[in-house]
Amino acid sequence: MDLNLQNKYALVCGSTQGIGKAAAIELAKLGATIILLARNEDALKSTLLELNTAFHQHHKYIVADFSDAENLKNTIEIFLQKNPPIHILINNTGGPAAGQVSSATTDEFIAAFNNHLICNHILAQAIIPGMKAEKYGRIINIISTSVKQPIAGLGVSNTIRAAVANWSKTLAGEVAQFGITVNNILPGATNTIRLQTIFENKAAKSGKSIDEIKNEMLDEIPAKRFAEPNEIANAIAFLASPAAAYINGINVPVDGGRTACL
User: Fold this and answer.
1) What are the domain boundaries of the chain?
2) What is the spatial distance between Cα 239 and Cα 140, in angstroms, rounded to a whole number?
C-alpha cells in the first residue's frame, strides 16, 4: 500500500490543537511537508517543532483567522505566489457553539456559514489550480457525524455541517478527472477542547454533572470510549495518500460505531 507523501505539500487548518494538530503530525510522519494554519502564532511556532523532519521537510506556517474570510483569501493567495503548489488541503476549524436550532440567531448561522463553508471554498479555489497542474490533489474536510444523524443540542452545527458535506460532494464530481479527490471525515466524540466545552454546556443547561453527561454520551458509543485525535488523524492520512486515489466524494465516520445509520 502506497502511503508515501514525500514531496507532497499539505495545508492543515486549525492545526495547533486537537484533530488538526494530530493530522499535521501524522502527515509529516508519512513524508509530507506541512503548512500549518491557525490564528495563534505562538502556538503555530510551538507545533512546528513537534513535526517529523525525517524526510528533510521544511515545514512552515500561516497566521490566519477563519472569522475574517477576506483576510484569509488575501493571505493564501500571497503564500501561493511564493511557494510550491499544495497537494493536500485539510479543512478543519472549531465548530459552532452548542444550542437548540429553534433559539439560534441568524447571526450565528451566518458566522458559522462563513467560518466553515466560505473559508473552505476560498482555500479550495486558491489551491485547486496547483493540484490540477501537479495531477494530484486531496481535499479532506473535517466535519461531523451530524451530516448522517443530527446531534441534539447542536442546531447550528448540524445545519452548517450538512451544507459543507453537500458542497464537498458537488466539488468531488467536478475535480475527479484531474486526479483530485474530495472527501469528508466525520469524527465522533473525540478527546479535544471542543468535547470538554460540549460537556460543560450540556451540564449547565440540564442541571446534570459533567460526569453524568460523559456517561450518557459513552452509553451511545458501542466502543464505550471517546476517540483520541490521532485515531481521526489516521483516517485523514490514509485519504491523503496515493493509496486512496479512487476514493472520492464520500463521508467517512470515525466514531466507534455511534452513528446509527449506514
Assistant:
1) 9-189+229-253, 192-226
2) 8
Grid coordinates representing 205 are 443547561
Q: Which residues of 218-250 are buried (b: 16+ CB within 10 A; e: fewer)?
A: eeebeeeebbebebbbebbbbbbbeebeeebee
pTM of the model: 0.96
Query: Could you tell me the maximum CA-CA distance found in the chain, to the nearest angstrom?
Result: 56
Residues in the chain where the model's pLDDT stays below 50? none
Distance CA 111, CA 74 (A): 19
Judging by beta carbons within 10 Å of its beta carbon (0-12, 13-18, 19+), is residue 79 exposed, middle or buried? middle
Calpha distance 145→168 (Å, rounded):
15
Contact status, residue 96 vs residue 161, Cβ threshold 8 Å? no
Distance of alpha carbon 209 from its chain centroid, rounded? 30
* Interatomic CA distance for residues 17 and 33, integer angstroms: 18
Check the CA dihedral 28-29-32-33 and report its sign.
positive
The CATH architecture one would assign to domain 9-189+229-253 is 3-Layer(aba) Sandwich (3.40)
Residues 131 and 225 sit within 8 Å (Cβ to Cβ): no
pLDDT of residue 99: 87
* Per-residue pLDDT, 198: 84
DSSP three-state, residue 226: coil
